[in-house]
Design a protein that fits this description.
Blueprint (H helix, E strand, L loop, with lengths): L1 H11 L2 E11 L2 E4 L5 E3 L3 E2 L14 E7 L5 E6 L4
Parallel strand pairs: 4-6
Antiparallel strand pairs: 1-2, 1-5, 2-3, 5-6
Pfam family, one: DUF2577
Protein name: DUF2577 domain-containing protein
Organism: Agathobaculum butyriciproducens
Length: about 80
């Protein structure tokens, strides 16, 4: 029952954001936690941005689509 309630709650959230770190360029991979590594088929970028825009170690801001199947790379994380 608890799992069903968690699934319903998760499905209602239209999007969520995450931080990720580029860990590989070929193949392009972004790690968002200790267990989750995203490959390019789960990632989308804005027009004019490509994998070559990033380097290993870059910290990224990601927006996760509802359901968690696709992540949009919004930008690199920076400091003020």
């Amino acid at each position: 029952m608890k799992q069903i309630a968690e699934n319903v709650f998760e499905a209602r959230r239209p999007a969520d954001w995450y931080y990720g770190k580029v860990i590989s360029l070929s193949p392009f991979q972004v790690q968002i936690d200790q267990k989750t590594v995203l490959e390019k088929n789960f990632l989308a970028v804005r027009t004019g941005v490509s994998a070559s825009s990033f380097k290993v170690g870059d910290k990224l801001i990601l927006l996760r689509k509802q359901g968690g199947q696709e992540y949009l790379i919004l930008d690199k994380k920076g400091a003020l």
